[in-house]
Structure formats: C-alpha cells, structure tokens
C-alpha cells in the first residue's frame, strides 16, 4: 500500500490550503473530502474580509479555492473517513471506499452541528457503527438499521442488503430513491435514542422502535473524538497548540474544528501553519 507523506481530511479553506502548502513543499498529499469544497463556503452570500477577494460571493470563493488547488496539482479523493488510527510510525485511515496510510495527518473536517443521540457514544463498537460497507461482511443473514443523511447513502444500503437478511433504511433527507427487496424504507421518522437490549440494538424514534443486530449512522461528519481515538478535546473542539499540533504525535488540526472564530481567512491561515508543521515533523522523522 502506498504511504503518503501527509493526509489531509477536509476540503474547506483549511484543508485546501494545507494541501496546497504541502504540495509546494514537495510532499505527497492525500486530500480526502468532497469535490465541491465546503457547503459553508459555497452557500455564503457575500464575504467582505478575505484578503484579496473583496465582496466575493461564496460560490465564487469556493471556485477560486478549487481552481487554485487544481492548478497546483492537488487532487481530491472523494471519500468519507470513518476512523484514523495512530500506528506509531504512521497513521492508518479507514474510509468507506478503502484504507489508506500516511506518515502525518491534518484534520480539517470542520464542525458538525449534529449532536450524538442518547446512547450512541456508549454503544459505539457494540452495535453502533459509522460505515456500512466496512462492516457489511459481519451482517450475513442478520438485520441492520441505517440512518441516512444523503442520497449517496443509498448505495451503502444496497451493498449491505446483499449480505444482510433485512435492512431498515431511515432517510433523514428528502428521499426519492427506489430501494426495494429486503430494504424497508421508513420516511419521516426522527431518531431519538439508542440502547442495547438482550444483545440487540434498539432505535427509539418519535413514532416507533426498530430492533436489529446493529445500527449504522451515516452522517457526513463524525465527532473528532470518535474519528481519532485518544484525541484530546477542548469542549467540542480539538485542542491544538500554536503549531496546530494535537496531543497525538504527527497529527495536526486546523480550521473550524479547532474553535472560534469561524472565519474563512482564519481557517486558511491555520491550514498553512498545520502543513508547515507537518512538513517539519516529517523532516524530524526522516
């Protein structure tokens, strides 16, 4: 397996700037995220305080960011990151589409407004998971629940249904799909809590309870503390020093995920610092 020098998670201002800076420093870069950059940027009406781009619309700013990255040879690998594990001399990155390795990692995944459901964190790894394709082999002849937040999750449901006996699909978006056979779709159902009862995962909703062997929560973003085991937090934010270093050697964080102010120019600046710090770390390792 190819081992990259630096893996960057997130394609907002912080992640793109980190990837560009790492590329300038002649490092091999794996940039993981959406190819459309950050919705927070692209949907902004007007930004007035970004140096060199006065009164720019969010859509134009996002295009400028992506065009800059492309011109530098930065490629985006469109995949969802499920977990990042420190292996000592490198990091193992588990994604929905496969696994990757990198000597250093920069987390620039932004902030999620979604709070965990009651019982979610307590049962993580004990019936609750964030990647249906990763664990599909464990559900042969079993029953599973999928909480889906995007139409892209329908492919994961179909993949899981090839192995599982029954899949309950609960879309938390405007569902217009055609999932069928052993996939049972329940629309307009709002999850409330999760608990384990007699070895089964029970999802309590506002209308009924669903029971299965496991529950998959396919949010776009995962809480940083769950994304990287052992990561030190400051409330809901990743704790970093001025070099953007976390408590895990070789792992850096930048952008909204490190705290306020939630400003594009601040995020990009931190992305630059994180990349330079990662390059310094690589030089020390070598």
UniProtKB/TrEMBL annotation:
Regions crossing the membrane: none
Keywords: Flavoprotein, Oxidoreductase
Record GO terms (molecular function): oxidoreductase activity
Chain ranges of the FAD/NAD(P)-binding domain: 4-142, 180-271
SUPFAM superfamilies: FAD/NAD(P)-binding domain
Protein name (Swiss-Prot/TrEMBL): NAD(P)/FAD-dependent oxidoreductase
């Amino acid at each position: 397996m190819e081992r990259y020098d630096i893996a960057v998670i997130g394609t907002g201002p912080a992640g793109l700037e980190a990837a560009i800076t790492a590329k300038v420093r002649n490092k091999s870069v794996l940039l993981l995220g959406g190819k459309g950059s950050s919705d927070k940027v692209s949907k902004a009406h007007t930004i007035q305080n970004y140096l060199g781009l006065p009164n720019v619309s969010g859509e134009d700013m996002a295009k400028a960011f992506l065009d800059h990255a492309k011109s530098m040879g930065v490629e985006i690998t469109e995949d969802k990151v499920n977990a990042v594990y420190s292996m000592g001399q490198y990091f193992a990155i588990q994604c929905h589409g496969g696994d990757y390795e990198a000597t250093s990692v920069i987390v620039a995944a932004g902030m999620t407004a979604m709070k965990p459901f009651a019982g979610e964190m307590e049962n993580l790894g004990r019936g609750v998971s964030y990647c249906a394709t990763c664990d599909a082999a464990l559900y042969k002849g079993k029953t599973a629940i999928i909480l889906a937040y995007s139409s892209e999750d329908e492919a994961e449901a179909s993949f899981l249904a090839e192995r599982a006996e029954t899949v309950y699909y609960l879309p938390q978006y405007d569902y217009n799909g055609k999932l069928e056979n052993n996939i049972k779709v329940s629309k307009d159902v709002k999850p409330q809590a999760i608990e384990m009862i007699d070895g089964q995962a029970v999802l309590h909703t506002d209308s009924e309870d669903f029971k299965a062997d496991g529950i998959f929560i396919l949010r776009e973003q995962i809480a940083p503390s769950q994304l990287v085991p052992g990561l030190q937090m400051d409330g809901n934010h990743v704790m970093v020093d001025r070099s953007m270093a976390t408590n895990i050697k070789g792992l850096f964080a930048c952008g909204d995920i490190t705290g306020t102010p939630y400003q594009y120019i601040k995020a990009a600046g931190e992305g630059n610092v994180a990349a330079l710090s990662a390059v310094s770390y690589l030089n020390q390792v070598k």
